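Lab notebook, bench 4. The sequencing result for the construct came back, and we need a structural model before the next group meeting so we can plan mutations. Quick request posted to the team channel:

Model the 3D structure of this chain.
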Amino acid sequence: MRASVCIVTYNNENTVEKLLSSLYEHCDAEVYISDNDSTDRTLDIVRSGFPQVHIIENHSNKGFGHGHNAVMDSLSSDMHFIVNPDIIFEYDVIGEMCRFFEENPDIVMAVPKFLYENGEEQFTPKLSPKVKYMVGGRFERFGGIFRKWRYEYTMRDRKVTEPVDIGFCSGCFIAVRTEIFKRIGGFDERYFLYNEDADITRMAGHYGRTVYAPQFSVVHLWERAYMKKKRYFLIQIDSMLKYFWKWRSGGRYVKLSADGKSE
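Done. Here's the predicted structure in token form:
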């Protein structure tokens, strides 16, 4: 299977070189950088060190989803990988996940296990969003019911060793069949940041299974920005409201037109 990778960058000079070095060391794929108007050395690093990368310059920052959608017309792959600039590859996870999709034609989207640099597992959301899960994530540090909700949301309260169907594929690393990515029109660009990954998982789920595949792993230099800055928390709230409004009809897929209205 032919594989493509898209990385949306915005002032990622501290991580992009490490990502691309590890990717090219271990994997074989056509790589795109979709840059959301970085003002640091991100693109200089890519151009000088990785001339084989296809660069798309977006001359404004219209968000995570818009950046990933910018490569859609250029894709001729069988499998497409949506990768954050803070990911590190330790082996050929792209090739192995492509084989996994070949062996499982009913699966349309999957995420691997995410690890910290020390090898410990990260627990990202895997169930479809609910208000209590958002609250749990914000106040998990206080324990009690908040921690319980967070553990439920991330399936930390379950021992998962085999592929399992999930409702939320984290956007830090998503493998999706390119045909499906194009069929659903990529990400819903009404989301600037946050929940666009839960949304695209739900859209893809109309065409097949969306799964967590823990036999695969990548290192994720994770930083929960919304926990540290009020601006990001407000963006998260806005995205959550858009998500609940879009999917308000009891789980039925509400297709949206370009102006955000249901068709």
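The chain has a mean pLDDT of 89.
Will bring this to the meeting.
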